[in-house]
Write a sequence for this structure.
């Protein structure tokens, strides 16, 4: 499948995140290019979930074995991008994203411990600013970017546009345990040399008050305030290699303390800030993509460790549970993992000339667990899931994809499995050509 014009133009002007760039980025120019570029991508989806929507379904699974199906319409992501090249290597980029058609304020049903209806404010402000950065490009191998940037840990964060995955929704495993799309204010040094691309970032640490048993650290990059607490710093990196034709290999990782960036901080019984609870998060991720005219295959494997998970989980569970509290109130696992593989074949392109019209038949398998407890912690067996997906992607014109899939989520034997049917339509492209 050809790369979308979106990536070709965006990489030309260096206004999109380096981790999202395709192999053609080897031809990037960092001279006196000037100009305005506008683009975006979006997803509209409808799902029929053939299992109970009750928040008690994991607590009392036998009660909901024959529950009726429930349907959902959704706008998972609608993104508008704007970039400008000032010349002499200076450029800026920004992305404004609307998730689920809203402004990141929602009512959430918390059913893990006891059912609660919570008014959730996931980030301060009224819009979701996914990216906003200023960049200085010195050479192809040396670029500095500062501002709100994408943290390219994992396959999904580095390739999160809807034409970069087959499923209607983003890869379930990574999206469950990691922030997605992971973005924070920070500084990045990135570049490419030969068949290698690389990026190193300095970021504020995650907020451990948002960690929980169903999503591990996924909510930790958020801040409900008009600022991001930065008492601790973290580091992230990504290395990509394109030495083998049609094959991309990626290695990424993250390490940083968390509880020092919680607000309020974890305190001891005497009321002093605890210096022994660092809550260090360590993540290592491997991913690969093979891409030819007729076939695409992708794979990812992520493993994470949270130090002091028992202390953090206990503190979160016992923290203030007032109406305006934005935090989770569950335990958090000391480890989490996600692994997946997908493959697809374009049945239209066989025996024909290259065309923008494509029809992909695909399959995907995922295995992930958002809660692996530390010793003596309560266990939640429902957090371990496997999922099999089969479906179609049809692209009538470049930039537009219609998706359909049947998925089946397997849980531990004492719970009810969760099949679903989903359809969606997506776009990705530039608005000015």
């Amino acid at each position: 499948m050809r790369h979308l014009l979106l990536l070709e133009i965006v990489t030309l002007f260096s206004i999109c995140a380096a981790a999202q760039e395709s192999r053609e980025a080897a031809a990037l120019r960092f001279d006196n290019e000037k100009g305005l570029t506008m683009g975006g991508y979006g997803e509209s989806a409808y799902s029929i979930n053939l299992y109970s929507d009750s928040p008690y379904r994991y607590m009392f699974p036998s009660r909901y074995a024959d529950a009726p199906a429930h349907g959902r319409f959704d706008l998972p992501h609608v993104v508008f991008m704007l970039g400008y090249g000032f010349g002499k290597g200076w450029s800026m980029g920004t992305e404004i994203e609307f998730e689920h058609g809203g402004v990141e304020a929602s009512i959430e049903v918390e059913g893990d411990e006891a059912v609660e209806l919570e008014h959730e404010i996931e980030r301060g402000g009224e819009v979701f600013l996914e990216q906003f950065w200023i960049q200085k490009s010195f050479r192809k191998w040396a670029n500095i970017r500062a501002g709100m940037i994408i943290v390219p840990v994992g396959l999904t964060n580095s390739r999160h546009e809807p034409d970069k995955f087959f499923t209607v929704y983003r890869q379930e495993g990574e999206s469950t345990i990691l922030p997605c799309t992971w973005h924070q204010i920070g500084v990045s040094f990135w570049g490419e040399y030969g068949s290698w691309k690389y990026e190193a970032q300095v970021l504020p640490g995650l907020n451990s008050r948002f960690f929980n048993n169903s999503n591990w650290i996924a909510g930790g990059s958020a801040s409900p305030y008009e600022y991001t607490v930065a008492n601790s710093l973290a580091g992230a990196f990504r290395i990509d290699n394109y030495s083998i034709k049609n094959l991309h290999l990626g290695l990424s990782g993250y390490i940083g303390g968390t509880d020092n960036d919680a607000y309020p901080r974890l305190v001891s019984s005497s009321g002093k800030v605890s210096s022994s609870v660092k809550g260090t998060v360590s993540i290592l991720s491997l991913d690969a993509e093979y891409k030819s005219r007729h076939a695409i295959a992708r794979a990812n494997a992520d493993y994470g460790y949270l130090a002091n998970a028992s202390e953090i989980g206990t503190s979160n569970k016992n923290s203030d549970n007032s109406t305006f509290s934005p935090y989770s109130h569950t335990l958090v696992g000391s480890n989490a993992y996600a692994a997946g593989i997908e493959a697809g074949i374009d049945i239209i392109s066989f025996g024909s000339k290259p065309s923008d019209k494509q029809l992909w038949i695909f399959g995907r398998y995922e295995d992930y667990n958002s809660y692996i407890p530390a010793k003596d912690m309560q266990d939640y067996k429902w957090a371990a899931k496997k999922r099999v997906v089969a479906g179609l992607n049809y692209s009538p014109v470049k930039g537009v994809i219609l998706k359909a899939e049947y998925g089946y989520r397997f849980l531990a034997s004492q719970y009810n499995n969760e099949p679903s049917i989903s359809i969606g339509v997506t776009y990705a492209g530039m608005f000015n050509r």
About this structure: The chain has a mean pLDDT of 85. The radius of gyration is 22 Å.
